[in-house]
Amino acid sequence: MSQHWASIGERGSVIGMTLMVAIQRYLGRWPFRIVLWPVILWYFVMHGTARRASQAYLQRLDPSLRQRPLARRWQSYRHFLTFGDTLMDKVAAWSGDIPDEKLAGKGIEHFVTAINGGRGGLILVAHHGNLDVVNALTERHPTLKLTVMMHTRNARKFNALLERVTGRPRPPIMEVSEITPATAQTLAEHVQAGGFVVIAADRMPLSGQRTQRLDFLGDTALFPEGPFWLAALLRCPLYALACVREDGHFRIDFDTIGDTQHLPRRKRDAWIAEAMQRHADHLAERVRRHPLQWFNFYPFWINDMDDAHDDS
Fold first, then answer.
1. Tell me, what's the pLDDT at 163?
2. pLDDT at position 311
């Protein structure tokens, strides 16, 4: 079996990451990219798990890559480069350097409508695109109460670096692996007061948590039940938030998935199963439009987990 994504530690030293951020902030985009290419090549060569996972994913989108190994590796390297490129956008987002004219899509309008409605909610996100850009939205609403649930232990260096170089703290973060009945009650009070909770819904949960097998890009993958159970328990609106680079802009989508306020207990399981597959279908649609912006660099499909050590 392959490594669980949560056990794959953060790579790179603080000194190296600080240097890359400094180049981006003070020299600009192209000097950053010139330095980025060999750095990403080193990661591409040394990080076999991520490289194999990237190629397995890209082959699902373009099966012809199976017979074209050079094209497959080149496309995978571009996948890695796109991930490295998001570092610039993260720094710009947390520095407040993304102007309004760079934000596109109906998501901004929908987000404002949800905030002004006075009801809190649960927001599902995925590792597709760059959600740090949404910081540009939250700054428009200083009274917005936002809590982010995420697994932070394998990205602490980078999170600390972002806060240090930008001088701005990230929203309150709750460690997703440490949810207890008490924290669930805290989240319920947060939502009832009009706040929003953000949680990723596209990664296999930590050991001991429940999953469902869903169809995703033509194969079977494990998705976490936790976010959807949380939505059912909180009895609140459920939204999906996405942000991708598109034609020189950041396209933001903010859509309603459902509302569990009046969900009967007897229908909870059926609703969760249907909502999870709908979420996976929507994610697949977005991934097909922007394939190089999906950043799950570990064996994602069930069939890939047993083949994770094949040479690529």
1. 67
2. 46
